Amino acid sequence: MQYLAGVDEVGRGCLAGPVISSAVILDQDNPIIGLRDSKLLSKKRRDELFTIIRSKSIDCTIGSASHTDIDRINILNATMLSMKRAIEKLKNKNIKVYIDGNQCPEINNKLQIKMESKIGGDKLFPCISAASIIAKVTRDRYMIKMHLIYPDYGFDRNKGYPTKEHLDAILIHGPTPIHRLTFKPELYD
Question: If you write DSSP's letter for every residue of the chain in order, what string do you get?
Fold first, then answer.
């Protein structure tokens, strides 16, 4: 039996922290009600669905690329790396993978996994919606932990995205060790 996996990422447009991807294989015999793009859900609903997806899915993995990976190989390549890491962690290799976006990562040829990119896939495929939720909640929780270490930047609210509060904090305090130094708004100069 061939399974269907969905893959999505979060954190591409951030100034700090990793890009996180998730790969999810849903149980077609046990559907999850209410799946949609994570950006369209409240935090409370995302957290509820996160728990349900983790308990009901056949497989659910996370891949990440750190801020140093992003600085070293650029955001596009780091995004592909995080997706590759999530896909290659899946236990079942007899899968077709749908990826939200317009590109597929290169993975180990020996796995013979079929992949297809779908722009707007998080609105078309529940498995991509599930991956979107897992990736978003995972990254948000990481950035909340970073807020405890670097409280001046508002990571608990902005999650590393370039809000006015975040940009002002960089002006005042400079970048943290988790900032992407190749993402240089004018204020870094």
Answer: --EEEEEEEE-TT-SBS-EEEEEEE--TTS--TT---GGGS-HHHHHHHHHHHHHH-SEEEEEEE-HHHHHHH-HHHHHHHHHHHHHHH-S--SEEEEEESS------GGG--EEEEETTHHHH-HHHHHHHHHHHHHHHHHHHHHHHHSGGG-HHHHTTS--HHHHHHHHHH---TTB-TT---GGG-
